[in-house]
Design a protein that fits this description.
Order of helices and strands: HHHHHHHHEEHHHHHH
Distance between the termini: 50 Å
Structural class: mainly alpha
Shape: globular
Length: 312
């Protein structure tokens, strides 16, 4: 898609800025979601600039037709965007138009009439229990500094042992998990939703070992997990360490930090865990989001059946 220096007239650009602030403030969407919506709607405005022969204003999108939106999706598809990207892009444009409609500026009926692209069904890719144990073991960590190896093992153990998102683990304060009595974490996840998550003794032990070796003071006002220079640990560092582990342990490309969260849910379900309880532990707003793990477990059972049954 062609990039334009000015993608919208001042009235539309200003309204879009108000919408983005509302997403972050009133709706409390994550920074990554707001960033994605900003990018998607900017691409939409750039499409309209080329489509209409000039930057659009509110008057140009007041009665936007489904055909205009279909043209935008077609241009994104031609540039290689998949169904998930197209669906998110349409969701962002719809959100912007609904915001403008509430302000009495446009009619959003055209966007509501357009059906979103059909999303492909994909299952999470968990690690096996044996591989997950190897990944979180301090003895398998590749960092030369002992305290960094202990840090990586402690963080990865929390992702697998408590089902945390990497952002949630990196958001822990230095005062948390400071005592053997700290067996429960209060986690604030997506959408500001708070949940209680149990912490396994092995995870407490891993954090305690990291605390003992860490050269920096882990006070209440700072982050629990620190980078090499003492600042808050960047998620890119852990993702890079996981790539090294994949290579060293001969793991598939799907073995990522987030895959440990998938592994947490899948292994609990495989051992008879209750789906509703797993939903609460993961912090999913909807049970349908958690139900995807039943498909993973079924797939594993079918693989075992086909490999072991004499008539399979």
């Amino acid at each position: 898609m062609q990039e334009f220096l000015i993608a919208a007239k001042p009235d539309l650009q200003g309204a879009r800025e108000r919408w983005l602030k509302a997403l972050a403030g009133e709706r409390r969407l994550s920074a990554l979601t707001v960033e994605a919506y900003e990018r998607d709607t900017r691409q939409f405005l750039q499409f309209l600039t080329g489509h209409n022969g000039g930057p659009p204003g509110i008057a140009d999108i007041r009665d936007l037709r489904p055909a205009d939106l279909r043209g935008f999706l077609a241009s994104r598809r031609a540039n290689g965007a998949g169904a998930r990207t197209l669906g998110r892009g349409l969701a962002g444009v719809r959100s912007l138009l609904r915001f403008l409609e509430r302000e009495g500026l446009v009619n959003a009926a055209g966007s509501a009439a357009l059906r979103a692209p059909k999303q492909p069904k994909s299952l999470p890719k968990p690690l096996t229990a044996a591989d997950a144990k190897r990944v979180v073991s301090v003895g398998e960590q590749l960092a030369e500094e002992p305290w960094i190896a202990a840090r990586n093992a402690a963080l990865l153990t929390l992702l697998y042992g408590s089902g945390l998102r990497i952002s949630e683990a990196l958001g822990l304060a230095g005062a948390e998990l400071a005592s053997p009595a700290d067996t429960v974490l209060r986690i604030t996840g997506k959408g500001g939703k708070t949940r209680l998550v149990p912490v396994l003794p092995v995870a407490l032990q891993a954090v305690a070992e990291y605390r003992k070796l860490c050269p920096y003071h882990l006070g209440a006002d700072g982050a629990l997990f620190r980078g090499a220079r003492g600042g808050p640990l960047d998620p890119a560092i852990i993702q890079r360490e996981m790539r090294k582990l994949r290579s060293a342990l001969n793991l598939p490309d799907t073995a990522t930090p987030h895959a440990l969260r998938h592994s947490f849910a899948t292994h609990l379900l495989g051992r008879g865990g209750d789906l509703r309880t797993i939903q609460e532990l993961l912090g999913h707003a909807s049970l349908s989001t958690t139900q995807v793990y039943t498909g993973v477990d079924t797939s594993r059972l079918l693989e075992v059946y086909e490999a072991a049954h004499p008539r399979a």
